Amino acid sequence: MKTPDPCILCGAVEFIEIHQRHQWQYLCCQDCRLITIHPRPTFQALMECYRNYLPDQASEIAKWKKMMAPVNHESADLIEARTNKMKGKIFDIGCGHGFFLQEMNRRGWQVSGLEISKTGRRFIKRTMDLAVFSEPLENLSLPSNTFDVVTLFYVVEHVIDPLLLLTEIRRILKPDGFVLIRWPHTTPIVKILGPLSKKLDLYHTPFHLYDFSPSTIETLLSLSGFGSIETMVAGHTRPNGRLNRYSSMLFGRIGDALFSLSRGKFLLPGVSKTTLAYKNPSQKQSKCP
């Protein structure tokens, strides 16, 4: 098998396998602990998959909307708390069917987005009459200092070069702007389940190219030039299926409660996290109560 590429965060070349599914391994960097897929799918193969990634049946789209509704609403509240409810320009990368854009548009924000999936773009055009970009951000040459907020919901783990992406996001943000990233934290669950995880597709192989932790997401953002980095639990999804839905709600609420009781010091491993990072740390708004 081909030798793994050096770690994108620290350049290390020593890894240990923590999970395997079919021909893919998930490797843990022995220096910074970033989890990386090996072998990595090609950019062309990923783009081809993502162009048909989203469902187009009305019933499945409705389930997707219901699943993301709690996270979309809590993220919108968080953004408005950090901007003192001043309406500005928001850019959602990987905007899917546009449900978060709809939420922010309803609140009076100027919205735009990027979505590789043709199904997602067609749905947004039909329901919002909004044209979204269809190519990766690095190909768009958007003007610098344009957006107040850039959001990525379950996107950063899918990107071959997240450092390049976040560097470009920082460029298009206004001087007082910030990025909001929602990301899964899967590896603690894989470790808890042990051999049972071999039967489950917890990493959505091969789509999740990385699995971040609070420390590795902070390193990634710092290398991209961001500061005042904060990670929190901030809500939970509402998946399909009773067991998945109840598990998400239970652990999400436990995570929220522990985060609140610890005054932001304890992040429950295994639950999805939300991270905020500022283009210029000196511009950071005061924390919401």
The biggest beta sheet is recorded as: 6 strands, mixed
Structural Rg: 18 Å
Report the count of strand segments: 10
The tally of structural domains comes to: 1
Q: Examine the coordinates and then state which fold CATH places here, giving the name of the CATH topology.
A: Rossmann fold
Written description of the protein model:
- The chain has 289 residues and is α/β, with parallel strands linked by helices.
- It has one domain (43-283): 3-Layer(aba) Sandwich (Rossmann fold).
- 35% of the residues lie in helices and 20% in strands.
- It is built from eight helices and ten strands.
- It has helices spanning 43-50, 58-82, 99-106, 118-128, 162-172, 187-193, 214-223, 242-261, and strands at 15-21, 24-29, 35-38, 89-93, 110-114, 147-153, 173-183, 210-211, 227-232, 273-278.
- It has a six-stranded mixed β-sheet, sandwiched between helices.
- The chain is globular and about 50 Å long.
- The chain starts with 14 loop residues before the first strand and ends in an 11-residue tail after the last strand.
